[in-house]
Amino acid sequence: VTDPVKQGEGVGAWVSYQVRTKSTHRRYVASFYKVVRRFRDFAWLHDKLVEKNKGFIVPPLPEKSAVQKYQMATEFIDQRRRALQVFVNRVACHPTLKDSKELETFLQADEEQWMLEIAKWQAETSAQHRPVSAAAQWFKNLHHSAQSLVSGRAEEIQEDPEYIKIRDYVNSLEAHLMEAHRQAARLMRKEADLGTALSEFATSAEALGKWDNEGPMRAAFDCLFSRAGEVAALSRARSEAMAVEFAAPLKEFARTIKAVQAAMADRTAALSAYSLAKSDLDLKKVRLAKLRGTPGLKEDKIAETERDVNEADQRLRNTKHGYETIRDDMREELNRFQKERAAEMTALLRDFALAQAHHTAEQAKAWGELLREVQQATAGNAI
């Protein structure tokens, strides 16, 4: 994801990106594609993958920010570009999502094909927000209400105990990751503030040295000005690198936890639908038994109830299959996620420690050079 270009002004402004793809995948006719996409188009890919891959962990998009979108600062645009690249790369590396028709369309559809897809998606999205009947609304809200059950205990008796442990771990991990990101951002700001303070100190040292004109302190203050400015530049550069190499990955980890919770909500919704279908079938069987035991009841009434029982039984079969499919997919998905994220977090912490050690060594080297220069200046003045 490269070459961000701002289009328009004010609240209607948006940014276009070039998405360049090199692939040897059998689904792609050519080995290289270059298309232009905007944030809305990445949202299309994300929403389609979520819709068609229940129980899978779909990589998250960066958050929307109305304020930053209005300002469209260069830093915000570049941060979003990097986050979108992480999103696309994670989708392309996912063992299931990489084979999706949606990713293929996103990466290679020309402008005309793409606009048709977006128009169709917008129409579907608009239709989903139209008023519906009370019964239909209940079913529509089933998934959303299940989100609140992800942390609850309602279905634990039917769930795998090992899965419940993982679910509880994921729910607690989100808060810890958000706090780690907050502290990383605080550390980044402190480093930037140190750079600013050192730069201002260097300027004051230079001004102080000028008052001595050609006196013995002039050379020492000139050295201090030079080395303090060097260390200030190191701190500013480290702060900028920390934002990209440490704070941003931590934030992406936290967003991914929400994606895991969304997949778990799919599983909870499927289990709830399965439980409801089972309860519905049991009630209909009881009703049928009562009707059969009622003397003089018309056969058509019994036949109608038998059809209801058969339909409820089919719904039970369907919901059971839906739940078991998600359950089995999630077993592999959570194993993959835990292994990959453990490796990534380990690498992130290792690289952070190495970068901090290198940064500290560079600072020590600069201050050591200052000490040597001041000692030389002092010795020269003594002679």
List keywords for this structure.
single chain; 383 residues; mainly alpha; PX Domain; Substrate Binding Domain Of Dnak, Chain:A, Domain 2; 2 domains; 76% helix; 6% strand; elongated
What would your notes on this structure say?
With 383 residues, the protein is mainly alpha-helical. The protein has two domains: 130 residues, Phox-like domain (PX Domain, 2-Layer Sandwich); 252 residues, Substrate Binding Domain Of Dnak, Chain:A, Domain 2 (Up-down Bundle), CATH 1.20.1270. The chain is built from nine helices and three strands, in the order E-E-E-H-H-H-H-H-H-H-H-H. The protein has a three-stranded antiparallel β-sheet with strand order 1-2-3. Strand 1 and strand 2 form a beta hairpin. The radius of gyration is 31 Å and the shape is elongated. It starts with a strand and ends with a helix. GO terms for molecular function: phosphatidylinositol binding.
Please name the CATH architecture of the largest domain.
Up-down Bundle
In CATH, the homologous superfamily of the largest domain goes by the name: Arfaptin homology (AH) domain/BAR domain
How many strands? 3
User: Which class of secondary structure composition applies to the elements?
Assistant: mainly alpha
The rounded Rg comes to: 31 Å
Low-pLDDT ranges: 140-157
Strand order, biggest sheet? Answer: 1-2-3
Distance between the termini: 62 Å
Q: Enter the CATH topology name of the largest domain.
A: Substrate Binding Domain Of Dnak, Chain:A, Domain 2
Helix amount? over 70%
Number of helices: 9
Family: Belongs to the sorting nexin family.
Subcellular location: Cytoplasm; Golgi apparatus; Membrane
GO molecular function, one term: phosphatidylinositol binding
GO biological process, one term: retrograde transport, endosome to Golgi
